[in-house]
Amino acid sequence: MDNIFILGASAAIFTTAAFLPQVIKAHKTRHTKDLSLAMYLMFITGLILWTIYGVLLKQAPIIAANGVTLMLSVYILYLKIKYG
Question: Does pLDDT of 5 surpass 90?
Fold first, then answer.
């Protein structure tokens, strides 16, 4: 593994892990009133685009980080729409 790959993989791990507390809190409390629907829609759109970009470049860290964060964000969006 080269240093650039390690850098990308590290960034992917940290940015995806940073999103977990929000997912856990929203899941436990079902409280999403303070979360912006517009922000999550734009965020999800960006994650879809980043994932496609990673696929086109064949870059596993970009695909994995954005794919996982996309799934977590879609779950929060689901909670926002259901309980929001």
Answer: no
Q: Could you give phi then psi for residue 25, rounded to 5 degrees? A: -65, -45
10-46 confidence digits (pLDDT tens): 988 999 999 899 999 999 999 999 999 999 999 999 9
**Residues contacting residue 32 through CB under 8 Å, at least 6 positions apart:** 26, 76, 79, 80, 83, 84
**Cα separations (Å) of 2 from 6, 18, 80?**
6, 24, 40
pTM (predicted TM-score): 0.86
3-83: what fold? Monooxygenase (1.20.1280)
Count each helix (H run) and each strand (E run) in the chain, helices first: 3, 0
Indicate the domain borders of the chain. Answer: 3-83
Cβ neighbours of 69 (radius 10 Å): 24
